[in-house]
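Note to self: user wants both folds in one dump. Writing first protein now.
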Amino acid sequence: MGRVSPAPPPRRWLVAVIIGAAVTSLCIVGSACPVFAQTGQGESDVKRPAYQLGRFDEDWSVLRGVDLGRTDDFWDRLKFIPLTADQSVWLTLGGQVRERGEYYGQYLFGASQPKQSDGYLLSRYRLSADVHVSPYFRVFAEGKSSFALDRDLQGGRTTAYVDEFDFLNGFADIMIPFGTQAGLTFRGGRQELIFGSQRLVGPGDFTQIPRTFDGGAAAV
């Protein structure tokens, strides 16, 4: 009988990278907020944007001028990180940790050979950074890692379940203003597309590996 090689160990460096990025973000926030804190706008006056499926659709500029050290929402410190004294250049950080357990009884309705039943854990991690250099230029990047633990069904760790690292979104925006009320925005790069009910075009967020598209767009 041939010798079966043991399965390779999980890449623990990915977990280290995620933890390191989170710690670094907290350090940046902790050092930046006292320097740039202002007392102009009260926390109660702020209307924060709702979290979106596409984090690139969130605009956290509403936190400009707010004393983030006094708000009751800890995440404000990650959503508006001023990079200059006048807060004209700023950074938004975002992320998601999703764990989901699945169990199949009688896989393929019992037609698989040999017959199989299996339970396993699906993990997906996302980390994003949104840099606004000016009202006319912006760069957004988001990475993703997807893993399947103990999935022994046919296909095993297929690409539908496992993608150890990839850029999910990565694009730049250039805005050309037309007067004070309108403008033309050019976008190029990689992006999840979210249209309507998402039956035809959408990222398929429930899946372990979301869909993404490469290309360019212009919007008025």
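First done. Writing the second protein, which came from a different request thread.
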Amino acid sequence: MNELTNIVHQHANQITAAVRQINALHTDLQAMERQEPEQMKLAELTEVHLKILSDITALQKNIMSSQSQIETLRITLKKIETTLWQKRVEEVRLSQLLALLRKYLLILCGLGAVLFIFSTKIDVIKIIAQILA
């Protein structure tokens, strides 16, 4: 998640810097038009215009790159979330199974104790019956 936040902040900073640069170029262009309206050459206007278009294109590429990286991270996070849910379900299932095993073990111990008591009493009854006979 920190990686996603860092990428978003990095690209937000790049976008902000590009917008500032475009605004500065636009301000320079307006200043040039005011100072030398008749002397300004078409080549200078074209150069500034191309620079602005280049910056806009770079900005669009950065945005698309950011979107691609964010989408990749989103998919990765979704896979991690799915894996965590699967592990949680398995953990709950194993916990329930362990509880059932404990119950069965207690039942078996109880049955063993009852059988032991009955087997002991039968031997005692046999001994008493032999003594009495």
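Dump finished. Worth passing along: The chain has two helices and no strands.
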